[in-house]
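Hey, can you fold this one?
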Amino acid sequence: MANTTPTFIPFTRPSFNQETIDAVAQVLRSGWVTSGPKLAEFEATLSEYFGGRPVRCFANGTATMKIALQVAGIGEGDEVITTPISWVATSNVILSVGAKPVFVDIDPLTRNIDLNKIAAAVTSKTRAIMPVYLAGLPVDMDQLYAIAQQHQLRVIEDAAQAFGSQWNGKKIGSFGDLVSFSFQANKNLTTIEGGCLVLNHLDEAKLAEKFRLQGLTRHGMDGMDVDVLGGKDNLTDVNAVIGLHQLKQLPSYQARRSALAHRYFDVIATQLKSNGLDKLSLELPIQNFTETNWHMFQVVLPLEELDCDRAQVMTELKELGIGTGVHYPAITGFTLYQNQGYKTNDTPIAERIGRSILTLPLFPDMVDTDIDRIAAGLAQTLKKHHKN
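Sure. Predicted structure:
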């Protein structure tokens, strides 16, 4: 009997061509595998990509955000305004430098921080805003920086998911204050693990270098000093050469992601209609706000209209060979934050979306029929559990 088990579609998968694999092998054979010439080339190439701004790379995207806070001088007793819908690293790094995260609720359409609610959260201790560009979608950058200027705040952009996104035709990272990107394995551009920080000037870049490697400053061949407390967050040449080749492929990756995302809109609408679910309150991403990189395609399940929870939907989709993810539950619901007095009902929109959001598969190697199958499986599952 033929195997009828459908091929499993993960929610994401990185793409590496043979040229990239060969380049990694060349670095391994060179004998210089830690931070070296390929890292310098990658940083220079990224700087050119961002219009000449200084760029420094790090071992992961968490380090980039923590070091951004340190470069901005944020520490004990300071407050940083951010969003409760993000990977917990966003707020963890604020805690790690001794500052306090102040969570502002989100806009239900963009699922990013609601810029109109930031002013009410500003106090005499507020030093910075850390917006997150969920699924690669930026906030209104003009409004963001107007708010920061009005209240004399630094902006540390958690653009972990937004490499390649734009605002009014300008690349995210090519303007603004401190901008942090992640190159983790599921990102649009990956170095397996890694990240980069776009800075304002060379003095900031030199300080970031110190924080990256134990606070070290070298003076000639045998002289060195340590004048700040740094860590061990340098990126290797193995990672850097992967990034160089990923950057070459980014335009084709971006075009494919955009095509797949727009197919989702069309096919999901068709499947809902054919299953009699035209009036189902399934919240799709905002489609025409700015130029996103389509890092993820997320829907918000109308749990009040279903007789099951999100976990059940995910389980049944997995049985159909469809992988999904949760990005993200509200940070304020985690025990660490509950123990510090944060409450999910302080940000009710984030709590609802964090409980209901579902990430569908999206990566460049997908084919059109994958989208068709996913949309059909989603509609089938929702119809099965629809209360009406």
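The domain at 18-243 is CATH 3.40.640.10 (Aspartate Aminotransferase; domain 2). Let me know if you want another pass with a different chain boundary.
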